[in-house]
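Hi all, long-time lurker, first post. I run a small reading group and we've been trying to get comfortable going from sequence to structure in the token notation. Rather than ask abstract questions, I figured I'd post a concrete chain and ask someone more experienced to write out its structure so we can walk through it together at our next meeting. Sequence below, copied exactly:
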Amino acid sequence: MNKREYMFSILDFVLVLFLIATVDAMVPGGGGFDENYNVTWGNVLKLNQGKEVQLFMDKTEGSAFESKHKFGSGFFQMRIKLPLKDSAGVVTAFYLTSKGDTHDELDFEFLGNREGKQILIQTNVFTNGQGNREQKFVLWFDPSTDFHTYGILWNPYQIVFYVDKTPIRIFKNNRRYGVGYPSKPMTLVCSLWNGEGWATDGGKAKINWSYAPFKANFQTFSDSGCHADGQKINAKVCGSTTYWWNTVQYSRLSANETTAFKNVRAKYVTYDYCSDRPRYPVPPTECRLNQ
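-- Answer (accepted) --
Happy to help. Here is the structure in token form:
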């Protein structure tokens, strides 16, 4: 091998390593549960060769699983079927979170209810440890009878919460106005736990343990996200338009999404911290900017 051929061989090798690293950052794996997630606590049953997982909760404990990787941006989806019948006080959660007192977090929390009453979805956004941005919704279907898809889009422009492809909440990146925006590597977590102290009727409705064990089912374990397994997000990498969720069309809602979003906001919102005047006499800055 002459010197010229040797140099090209070295360059080819470096290029291959670069491509492998890029692909690894883009896609967190296309397999089932075991490839992308770990059980973190409690009783977790794997079904259909790892294509479905069932979480359990009894008087002793609940259960949870989390992604093996942390992420710096992405579009994260989970198909979920909630506990049946009387689930008052039972909380099923699907969320992204970092660690520590100054953590970032993006929450879907499903608040169980008495049989025949509607289950509520509570969403929340934490930035640098500050939350208190709750918005609650009723749904236009019963989420305990079948699977439905819940999604979180997180990119440099906006965070969007989706229910079956319908946007229900937007939190825009308004750092230039002094509003916090998630900037820490976050893990995806799903859990089932006892929230009877607050979840239903302000904690008045307690868990009916005669219905235990409570079960929540999850599907879809291969989500699109930029791996960020270090202490910080590489904004240049995870904000790159190489990833489809960072392209310009995902910087805002489409016309059809905007129409659907306005319909949800008009019909299904039961609580919005932005409208809670006793709590916030002056609404937080982001409330006006997110409209």
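A couple of things your group might point at:
The chain has a mean pLDDT of 91.
The two ends are 64 Å apart (CA to CA).
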